[in-house]
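Quick check before the chapter quiz. The format below is the same one you will see on the exam, so make sure you can read both the input and the output lines.
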Amino acid sequence: MARKKKSEGEAAEQDTSQAGAEHAAEEVTQPAQEAPQAEAAPDASDPEAGEGESARAPEAPQPEAPKAETRPLEAPPAEAPRAEVPPAEDAPREAAQADAPQPELAQADEAASAEVAEEPGAPATVAADASEGGEAAEEAAERPARAKPSVPGAHLEVDIVPEGVDPLGRGEEYEDPYAIEEDEHAPAQAEEQAEEVEEVLTQPIASAAIDLAAGARYRATGKRKSAIARVTLRPGSGTYLINGRTLEEHFPRTTLQRNIRQPLETVGYHERMDVLARLQGGGISAQAGALRHGVSRALLEADPNLRGELKRRGFLTRDSRAKERKKAGLKKARKRPQFSKR
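Here is the expected output.
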């Protein structure tokens, strides 16, 4: 019994859905049939009436699509609306445009005709190209090979005259004035001359005549950098007393000691005169130079005739070398800060 009731209910639902679908189809077909009748073109026999009606005819309203029900089973296809007929004025323009040749079609026709024209003549063109290639090959074979450009003067022989040989063949007596003679003994001779000059400078001055009286005192002042030496020469055994100390105590370096003794050794009075000195300022090297300068000046006070020899040996020249002052913007006298480009 339950199955029979269910089948009867399903059959009733199917009948109601089919009835709804047929009703919707009738509503769609009625506006579709009315629209073409309203849009019918006027009669061609009456042009004036056609023109007026076409100008005044309003556009047909488009029908609204019906709302589909919840579950339609099958809906019949709606008929498509007919295309609108163009008015009479636009018809001649469209016909003229259809009759006018389009540029794209014209180009396609030209390309097709060109291909058709080339097809039968293709063997002839290939043959012509082959004949031209053969003629070009024959002409290339007939042409002579291109000669390499010659270098100017390549045919001339190299003529190099060795050094010391007469280019004109004037005999063995010829001497080249521009020839450079290499002397193997030149370096040795230069060294010997330098040694001779040193010996002359170190030799004692024989013309020195200094009065060595018991009360003789010869005073002078020597300078080097910022050091000042006040020197006094007196007859004695050749001792040095510098600020109450001996020479070896005040100047421990042998090089400085030798430089200080040079003036008296050059004159030959290094064992017959004592040196008393008072030094101030400067360092050890500057004080040694100042002391040497003071002793040389004191000797000049003892004998003015020694000036030439002492000057030639450089004892009377005050050494002007000194530390250069610091400049603004620099780290020292000339040292600059590191430059950074970036």
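If your answer matched, good. The beta strands are 218-224, 227-235, 240-242, 273-280.
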